[in-house]
């Protein structure tokens, strides 16, 4: 890649060697960004990175380098947890949002159930046959009784969440590994570029 | 010298000294753990990283390194960054869904109070 007169890539500069025409690092570590290779070399080592890139098709190497740089930066920032710290934090956020969503959906259901007898009393047309109407009325009576109890529970949940009582501890690495396996089964990672 | 070599020293085919930095975290009954971490980071880099950490944090560091190494082996292009991206997408979707649901709650509550007012 580096011809006569052209500058060696950042990796060959750091490794103090001649930058060959077919240097595997050159397309991804330009000479104007020495820090990028320095950090990857510090965490993974040049030979490991070279091996990893050689095992990948050319069109995937740029993404691989970017993800390695990201991981290396995370590891330097947090030498104990690296990227796992970020995963733990995001997992916690997902859990909290799912809980809030469940509370909001339960609230809608309660309100809809409270609305039902009012609709009936106004003789609005419901597109249900008699059998479904009877079932809905029966369930409605049960749910209204439950809703008046649940309103207190929802208020308590909301208070607890805002006061941080439901903040769970960060997941342990082993549970994160289990979560990873579940996610891969449910939603296979897309191979599109993350960096566009 | 340890009577039984740790997984790292077994893998590296060397003697396992008494103060081997790998021994507490790579027991001999789990050779795959060190093999995976060595493949991605290399023994020298892992040793350096552990030496720079206080002893009480090294076990956690090894576990997180193992996790990231396994992610990288499973997904050589994105590694654990793929998981981060997936979680960020899940968060975005959940936030959108939550905003939509909370808007529906507001509408439903408004409808309910209007209906109740019209009863009177």
Automatic annotation (TrEMBL), chain A:
Domain of life: Eukaryota
Protein name: LOB domain-containing protein 12-like
Entries under PANTHER family matching the protein: LOB DOMAIN-CONTAINING PROTEIN 12, LOB DOMAIN-CONTAINING PROTEIN 4-RELATED
Assigned protein family: Belongs to the LOB domain-containing protein family.
LOB domain mapped to chain residues: 7-108
InterPro entries the record matches: LOB
Organism listed in the record: Camelina sativa (False flax)
Name of encoding gene: LOC104700479
Taxonomic lineage: Eukaryota, Viridiplantae, Streptophyta, Embryophyta, Tracheophyta
TrEMBL record, chain B:
Pfam family, one: LOB
Entry-linked InterPro entries: LOB
Residues annotated as domain LOB: 4-105
Top-level taxon: Eukaryota
Coiled-coil blocks: 84-118
Keywords recorded for this protein, A-Z: Coiled coil
Annotated family: Belongs to the LOB domain-containing protein family.
Name of protein: LOB domain-containing protein 24-like
Organism: Camelina sativa (False flax)
Gene: LOC104710467
């Amino acid at each position: 890649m580096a011809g006569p007169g052209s500058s060696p890539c950042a990796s060959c500069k750091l490794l103090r060697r001649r930058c060959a025409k077919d240097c595997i690092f050159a397309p991804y570590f330009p000479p104007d960004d020495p820090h990028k290779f320095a950090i990857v070399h510090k965490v993974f080592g040049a030979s490991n990175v070279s091996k990893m890139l050689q095992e990948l098709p050319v069109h995937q190497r740029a993404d691989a380098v970017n993800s390695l740089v990201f991981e290396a930066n995370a590891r330097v920032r947090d030498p104990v947890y690296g990227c796992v710290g970020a995963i733990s934090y995001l997992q916690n956020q997902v859990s909290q949002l799912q809980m809030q969503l469940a509370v909001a959906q339960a609230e809608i259901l309660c309100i809809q159930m409270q609305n039902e007898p009012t609709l009936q009393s106004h003789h609005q047309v419901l597109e249900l046959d008699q059998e479904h109407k009877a079932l809905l009325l029966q369930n409605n009576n049960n749910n209204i009784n439950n809703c008046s109890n649940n309103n207190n529970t929802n208020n308590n949940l909301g208070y607890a969440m805002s006061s941080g009582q439901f903040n769970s501890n960060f997941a342990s690495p082993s549970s994160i590994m289990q979560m990873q396996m579940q996610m891969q089964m449910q939603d296979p990672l897309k191979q599109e570029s993350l960096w566009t | 010298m340890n009577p039984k070599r740790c997984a790292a020293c077994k893998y590296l085919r060397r003697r396992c000294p008494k103060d081997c930095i790998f021994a507490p975290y790579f027991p001999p009954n789990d050779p795959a753990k060190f093999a995976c971490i060595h493949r991605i980071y290399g023994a020298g880099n892992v040793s350096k990283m552990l030496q720079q950490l206080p002893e009480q944090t090294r076990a956690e560091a090894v576990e997180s390194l193992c996790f990231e190494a396994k992610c990288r082996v499973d997904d050589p292009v994105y590694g654990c960054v793929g998981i981060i991206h997936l979680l960020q997408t899940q968060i975005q979707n959940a936030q959108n869904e939550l905003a939509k649901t909370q808007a529906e709650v507001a509408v439903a509550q408004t409808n309910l109070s209007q209906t109740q007012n019209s009863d009177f």
